[in-house]
Design goal:
It is built from 4 helices and no strands. With about 100 residues, it is an all-alpha fold. It has a domain at about 25-90. The termini are far apart.
Length: about 100
């Protein structure tokens, strides 16, 4: 490979410090951050949709307010309450399985 070209094989090398018992925790934290950002993006797009009815907009905004630090949970609860009427009646403080 000529000098200055990208060597993608370097990206597949796992640093030794990741081969510890903390590897799983680090991977989970990274995954949670990525999923959270994706959930925020989805909710922003939905809330920006001009064809969205006010009740749905208010319901999603309410879930976002209930779980400001966990956007994935807010989005999941919104989807569940829209699809499963019995879920909408439950307390939002109960853990979602």
């Amino acid at each position: 490979m000529a000098r200055g070209q990208n060597d993608l094989s370097a990206l597949t090398v796992v640093p030794m410090e990741w081969k510890t018992q903390n590897e799983d925790q680090q991977a989970r934290a990274l995954t949670a951050a990525i999923v959270g950002e994706q959930a925020r993006d989805i909710m922003r797009e939905v809330l920006d949709d001009e064809t969205l009815d006010d009740a749905t907009r208010d319901a999603l905004a309410g879930k976002m307010a209930e779980h400001p630090t966990d956007p994935a949970r807010a989005l999941l609860e919104h989807f569940l309450s829209a699809r499963l009427p019995q879920f909408a009646q439950q307390e939002s403080t109960q853990p979602v399985a």
